[in-house]
Amino acid sequence: MSKTKLKIGEFSQLMQITVKTLRFYEQKGLLMPDEVDEWTGYRYYSIRQMQKLKSIRDLQQLGFSLDEIKDLYEDESHVPGADQLAEKLRQTELALRQLVARRDSLLELQNSRKQIKTMEKISIQSLPEIIVASHREVIPNFEAIGPMCYEKIGPEMQRLGCKCPQPGYCFTIEHNKEFTPINIDIEYCEQVEEMGTDSDIIKFKRLPAVPKALCIKHTGAYDKFYESFTEAFRYISEKGYKVAGHHRTSYIDGAWNQEDPEKWVSVIQIPIE
What we know:
The chain is of the alpha+beta class. The chain has seven helices and eleven strands.
């Protein structure tokens, strides 16, 4: 009985795998053609190799790398041993915990985004005590906030090994005594999980809780913040509150992920009593 021979294209089609992948497996010595015509160079595969390819795929789905699978076939065991299975289970459980943690962080971030988008225009909230990585400098204009964050502050926080809880919370505090569109004395703060070692760029500090803050959602460009401040202070006056500290401006959506300034979202937080 003559054995069935399949050209590489036929084998590729039947096994739903690209010819490029088959050639890669051949280069790695994992799945060699059953026969190569010395005159034409045509590669032929057998039924037996269909079964081997299925086994390779099954092992890949279990998390074994191609190198690990090759070692199994070189040892002629073809089946992982008890120790190998135990190690693969350990790796899988670790990856599963990491994925669950990532999912929970993403859900938390997603929910916080939904809360921002659905929050009332004005609300009264408490701000918990937090640890922040702080950077203060005089910048030429408000447009310089973005480059300051991703060119200077971000790399330095990464170098210092800062870990930020999810969802992230960052804000600015202006220290000028009066409005100025240039030479702005601004402090950028980003919440971190623990105190770190100060550097020339980043200072760590603990900010006390704010028992009560008026929070107003601002949608639009930053040069229209005055509209939201007008509304906020009218509300403060009408309700008999008084300002009890520096306001914070928390940036939710901005130029880093939204080109249209009309869709930028910020929250101005004003301590009151």
